[in-house]
Amino acid sequence: MWKRDEAVKPASQPTPAAPAVSSVQPGAPVGLPAEPRRIERDLVNIGKSVVIKGELSGSEDLTIEGHVEGKIELKDHLLTIGPNGRIKAQVFAKTVIVLGEVTGNISASEKVEIRDGGSVDGDIVSPRVAIAEGAHFRGSVDMQKKSVSAATSAQASSSAKPTPTPAPAPAAQAAVAH
Amino acid sequence: MAFSDLFRRRKDEPDLDTGAAQAPVYSTKVLAKFIAGLSGRSSPVLLDLGSVTGSNVTFFGERLGCKIIVEDLSKDIDRAVNQKTVGELPAHFAKRFNQEDASVDGVLCWDLFDYLDKHSAAALASQIVRLLKPDGVVLAFFNTHEPKEPAPAIYTKHVVVDQASLQYRPYPAARGKQRPFQNRDIQRMFEPLRITEQFLLKSHMREVLFLKEAAAAADA
pLDDT tens digits, residue range A115-134? Predict the structure, then answer.
């Protein structure tokens, strides 16, 4: 009887691996030890005193506290505009969290959040948009999934084409690739 | 998907509109008619002239599939009051909207007209008429009672709870409500729109739904 109980228990319980798998980051290398909680993301910050004019692209999560003018592209990653961040740019990312100021259009394949104190002047295209009490927003919100994919593919195919909302022309191309 | 699912907040999504629990909830008769007026259209364009509210964006955008344009005119009014340029509001409204003619399916005015004088209100109404597509709808609230002297300087955020109820969240304004408009004034302001629904609530608020009939749009 004892042995039979032991054998039955695992079958009746939910699969223990499920939560662990969900916490692994999509971009994580294959073959890492099975301890996802210990995995720490590399956090990249652009500090308060940094000013970037041009195109900023990368393949990891990014937090901006400085000034960026031009274009920001983090296709599959999280972009956080910190409370001190001042952005005048077209923004393309998976998820965008705004605590500072953004002037320009935002296109996110997953979600855009404008937190309390955050400000966006521009159009948002994303399947999910959350705007906090105390946030400033002026522009349009398009949450149609087809529009997001269309906007993303259009952007990918012709990234050099000008977009409707005017963003300042980059004075110098400062491509930051990670 | 069940119809009730439209109004259920996602469990994994935090409510960013904090501090809202105490605000009173009032019934609305006209919101459901407004939503019905938008239904059946593919990706209707909605112009919200009130203060931006996250849950309204979610409601109209994510659940009803609208493209929402937010133009918070309360900030324009506040700026005009603070800069003592209220007299210039009619001219300001005349050039405020850069959208094309007949480009919007629905307009949410909320109670914005209560804060405007007659000339400013007429200028804004004519812009709304211009922007509205044929068969487009406008939701507007009008106070029916003379405001107390001095009128409390507060705006109200109208947060959609469901089709039949709105939460009223007060927030500071540069000035209070102005004298109420008579019904005939409202009709004239919005001509050639037709009032299709009108409800007088116990809260002394008149809820009005306007429709831009296709024939009237062709005449215009």
Answer: 999 999 999 999 999 999 88
